[in-house]
């Protein structure tokens, strides 16, 4: 991704197609593979025949469940908003202005992923049968719990949310730092494909900021429509104190 003469290179003509790229299909196939492998581990460990006096090992079963769960959660994270589907409304931002919605399903899936990690760590510590698995299980459980708390704290504080005010647009931190850009400084808005599709915003300076699109509840075309409206129409910016002002733009 590069910016030359303030124009975004690699910008898609149809912004919504960036969510269904070849990289997306490859990662979705990887998610399906994780589910398949996880089920094989879980079912094989649970129903494999045992020799006389042999005890069943439940660690492979737990590992299989974790892999399958990760595959399902990864698919949820990757899916993204679909063009033509009903989109949730904007809300009032705590600091003033209008907050664009984030994908609730992705937030839940990401948080659930760390719960699964922590749960696997607990199972490994309890059922591992030795000091090594016990120590590793405790580390994994603590890591999953810590990341879950960090993620939930970030969600509650509005992390990842695009906020519009009559004066500026604030883009959340991601591959670039959190940035507040005055509407008069905004130059171009575009969607760029890749393994992690982004909304790319260029501004005077020159500068560039990006937002991960899969975390946003609105499709790329709607996001661009909204930002372009207030970039090009100074008289309309005063309405960015009411979330309902954006209702007609998301339909």
Indicate the radius of gyration in whole angstroms.
Answer: 22 Å
Please, what is the average pLDDT?
A: 85
Total strand segments:
10
Count of structural domains: 2
List the secondary-structure elements in sequence, H or E: EEHHEEHHEEEEEEH
Which bin fits the share of residues in helices? Answer: 40-55%
Largest sheet: number of strands, sense, barrel closure: 5 strands, antiparallel
Find the structural class using helix and strand composition: alpha+beta
Largest sheet strand order: 3-4-5-6-7
Q: How much of the polypeptide forms β-strand, as a percent range?
A: 5-15%
Uncertain stretches: 1-7
Keywords:
10 strands, five-stranded antiparallel β-sheet, three-stranded antiparallel β-sheet, disordered N terminus, alpha+beta, 251 residues, PH-domain like
Structure description:
The protein starts with a strand and ends in a 19-residue tail after the last helix. Strands 3-4-5-6-7 form a five-stranded antiparallel beta sheet, with no helix packed on it. Strand 8 and strand 9 (about 200-205) form a beta hairpin. It has helices at about 20-45, 60-80, 105-125, 130-155, 220-230, and strands at about 5, 5-10, 90, 100, 165, 170, 180, 185-190, 200-205, 205-210. The protein has about 250 residues and is of the alpha+beta class. Helix 2 runs antiparallel to helix 3. Helix content is about 45%, strand content about 15%. The chain folds into two domains: about 15-85 and about 105-155, no CATH class; about 160-250, PH-domain like (Roll), CATH 2.30.29. The radius of gyration is 22 Å and the shape is elongated.
């Amino acid at each position: 991704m590069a910016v030359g003469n303030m124009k975004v290179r690699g910008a898609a003509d149809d912004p919504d197609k960036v969510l269904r790229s070849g990289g997306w299909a490859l990662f979705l196939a990887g998610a399906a593979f994780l589910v398949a492998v996880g089920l094989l581990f879980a079912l094989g460990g649970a129903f494999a025949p045992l020799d006389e006096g042999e005890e069943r090992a439940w660690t492979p079963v737990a590992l299989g469940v974790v892999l399958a769960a990760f595959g399902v959660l990864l698919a949820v994270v990757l899916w993204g908003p679909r063009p033509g589907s009903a989109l949730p409304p904007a809300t009032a931002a705590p600091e003033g202005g209008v907050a664009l919605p984030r994908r609730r399903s992705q937030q839940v899936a990401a948080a659930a992923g760390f719960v699964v990690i922590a749960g696997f760590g607990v199972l490994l510590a309890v059922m591992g049968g030795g000091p090594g698995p016990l120590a590793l299980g405790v580390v994994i459980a603590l890591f999953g719990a810590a990341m879950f708390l960090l993620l939930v704290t970030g969600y509650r504080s509005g992390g990842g949310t695009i906020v519009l005010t009559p004066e500026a647009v604030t883009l959340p931190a991601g591959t670039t730092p959190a940035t507040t850009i005055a509407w008069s400084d905004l130059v171009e808005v575009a969607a760029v494909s890749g393994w992690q599709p982004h909304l790319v915003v260029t501004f005077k300076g020159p500068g560039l900021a990006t937002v991960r699109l899969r975390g946003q509840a609105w499709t790329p075309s709607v996001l661009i429509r909204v930002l372009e409206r207030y970039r090009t129409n100074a008289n309309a910016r005063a309405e960015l104190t009411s979330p309902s002002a954006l209702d007609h733009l998301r339909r």
